[in-house]
């Protein structure tokens, strides 16, 4: 697939832009560049006007192969493994990060500021400049939306939600509806506990498609600076996600959970209500977290346990099975 853009740049533009990241430039092609291409395509095609990148693993697997691409981002360890004699190899410490920077500058998918005619925004909403609001978006009374935000089609932002600057919300999201909180009444029937709080989303947060974030019963459900939330995630009432953490597809964060800074919650993971997950931690694929997780800890499994404990128990189980088989 060819990712064409209606723009042109050259090697000098990119090298100057990446300046502090560049270790070396190998080759001298100064032709125009107008798009990007996956490294796998470079192995079979001619892409003289394109940009690509390769990680150390793929460079090693394809050692000695020749490609034709205008500019290849590659690290110093791998720079001699791939022949790009037609184009240029720009040696950087982290090719993927360098590629991300190029995409952000020249290939941004952000939409131009406008409010689609089918959007329904309450007159009381405080809307910052530079925002894009998509088709059929609803923003209810008392909400605040900061500068340069993007809210895509069919998403609903319910009353009193506060959204910071440079926030991106995907399609079909629901932000600020009441949570799943019930109590038995005198007739032994479940009755909803009214949720009087709101959702607060700090600057640079990104929410992908079909995600649901519930407002708090009292107080706020909070996503702090630069939190990233993937598709099909549920964050329940009163949860707090600290800055720079990632909550990935199909994860469920229950009520009053606290996720620390720089923490990764993997796809399909479940975190029980009122559990605290520490900073710089990782919750593994499909883990069911029933108790607090310390800082700098990796937990996996159902119920979850530290990866060190998992390895110990795995070794014991293997020994038991071997001894049983010998009987």
Descriptive report:
By secondary structure, the protein is of the alpha/beta class. The protein has 5 helices and 36 strands. An 11-stranded mixed β-sheet has the order 7-10-13-16-21-24-27-30-33-35-36.
In terms of topology, how is this protein built?
Blueprint: E1 3-10, H1 11-18, E2 22-26, E3 32-36, H2 39-42, E4 46-53, H3 56-61, E5 68-74, E6 88-92, H4 95-106, E7 114-115, E8 120-121, E9 126-127, E10 132-133, E11 138-139, E12 144-145, E13 150-151, E14 156-157, E15 162-163, E16 168-169, E17 174-177, E18 182-184, E19 190-192, E20 198-201, E21 206-207, E22 212-214, E23 220-223, E24 228-229, E25 234-235, E26 240-241, E27 246-247, E28 252-253, E29 258-259, E30 264-265, E31 270-271, E32 276-277, E33 282-283, E34 288-289, E35 298-300, E36 305-306, H5 307-326
Parallel strand pairs: 3-4, 4-5, 5-6, 7-10, 8-11, 9-12, 10-13, 11-14, 12-15, 13-16, 14-17, 15-20, 16-21, 17-22, 20-23, 21-24, 22-25, 23-26, 24-27, 25-28, 26-29, 27-30, 28-31, 29-32, 30-33, 31-34, 33-35
Antiparallel strand pairs: 1-3, 2-6, 18-19, 35-36
């Amino acid at each position: 697939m060819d990712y064409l853009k209606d723009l042109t740049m050259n090697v000098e533009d990119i090298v100057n832009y990446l300046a502090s990241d560049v270790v070396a430039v190998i080759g001298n092609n100064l032709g125009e560049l107008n798009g990007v291409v996956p490294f796998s395509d470079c192995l079979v095609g001619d892409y003289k006007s394109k940009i690509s990148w390769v990680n150390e693993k793929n460079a090693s697997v394809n050692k000695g192969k020749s490609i034709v691409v205008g500019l290849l981002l590659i690290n110093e360890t791998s720079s001699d493994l791939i022949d790009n004699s037609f184009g240029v190899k720009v040696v950087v410490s982290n090719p993927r990060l360098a590629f991300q920077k190029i995409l952000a500058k020249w290939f941004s998918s952000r939409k131009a500021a406008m409010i689609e005619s089918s959007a329904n925004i309450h007159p009381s909403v405080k809307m910052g400049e530079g925002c894009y609001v998509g088709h059929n978006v609803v923003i209810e009374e008392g909400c605040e939306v900061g500068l340069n935000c993007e809210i895509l089609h069919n998403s609903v932002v319910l009353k009193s939600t506060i959204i910071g600057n440079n926030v991106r919300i995907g399609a079909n999201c629901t932000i600020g509806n009441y949570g799943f909180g019930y109590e038995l009444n005198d007739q032994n029937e479940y009755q909803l506990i009214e949720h009087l709080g709101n959702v607060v989303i700090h600057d640079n947060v990104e929410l992908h498609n079909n995600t649901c974030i519930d407002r708090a019963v009292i107080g706020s459900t909070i996503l702090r600076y630069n939190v990233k939330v993937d598709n099909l995630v549920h964050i329940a009432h009163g949860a707090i996600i600290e800055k720079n953490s990632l909550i990935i597809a199909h994860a469920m964060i229950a009520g009053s959970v606290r996720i620390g800074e720089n923490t990764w919650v993997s796809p399909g993971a479940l975190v029980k209500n009122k559990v605290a997950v520490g900073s710089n931690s990782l919750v593994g694929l499909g883990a069911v977290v029933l108790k607090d997780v310390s800082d700098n800890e990796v937990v996996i499994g159902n119920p979850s346990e530290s990866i060190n404990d998992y390895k110990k128990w795995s070794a014991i189980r293997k020994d038991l099975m071997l001894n049983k088989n010998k009987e």
